[in-house]
Design brief:
The chain has 3 helices and 8 strands, in the order αααββββββββ. The protein is of the alpha+beta class. The protein has a 4-stranded antiparallel sheet with strand order 1-2-3-6, with no helix packed on it. A 4-stranded antiparallel sheet has the order 5-4-7-8, with no helix packed on it. The relative contact order is 0.17.
Length: about 140
């Protein structure tokens, strides 16, 4: 595209205008491709790291939250009959898993266990569900 002084006025002004438009377009495209959660987290001061896994009759998740600092493990039951289960977590730091109390979880119900604590970000975290008579199932590792 050729610009002439007839269209753009004096040459110095057209260069400045072109550079300004180019800078605005570059800044605008950067804003458009930024992930939505980045601005949302920054705006509300909350960050969370969530990892989930699909099981045959539901979904198990672990969430590392801030404001306040807490670890949540939750299971949403989408099929099958009522189960008796404990939700828990373990870390790459070793040691025994930590479990909450036993819960009876029915179809379409969501069970949550929460541990209010300052959690370590130098280790990874895994959500667990220990189902009576069926065994223990886990999420992928969550990291800060």
């Amino acid at each position: 595209m050729v610009m002439t002084t007839e269209c753009w006025g004096n040459n110095q002004m057209s260069r400045r205008s072109i550079l300004t438009v180019a800078a605005c377009m570059a800044a605008g495209s950067t804003l458009l491709i930024a992930p939505a959660h980045a601005s949302e987290s920054k705006d509300v001061g909350i960050q969370a790291r969530v990892e989930c896994t699909s099981l045959s009759n539901g979904e198990l998740c672990i969430s590392l939250n801030t404001s306040p600092s807490r670890v949540e493990v939750f299971y949403t039951k989408s099929g099958g009959g009522t189960i008796s289960a404990q939700l828990g977590y373990r870390t790459t730091a070793g040691g025994s898993p930590t479990y909450g109390g036993t819960k009876s979880i029915s179809l379409h119900e969501r069970a949550v266990s929460t541990w209010n604590m300052s959690y370590r970000c130098d280790v990874d975290w895994k959500g667990l569900i220990k189902v009576s008579g069926q065994g223990t199932f886990e999420t992928p590792w969550a990291t800060c």
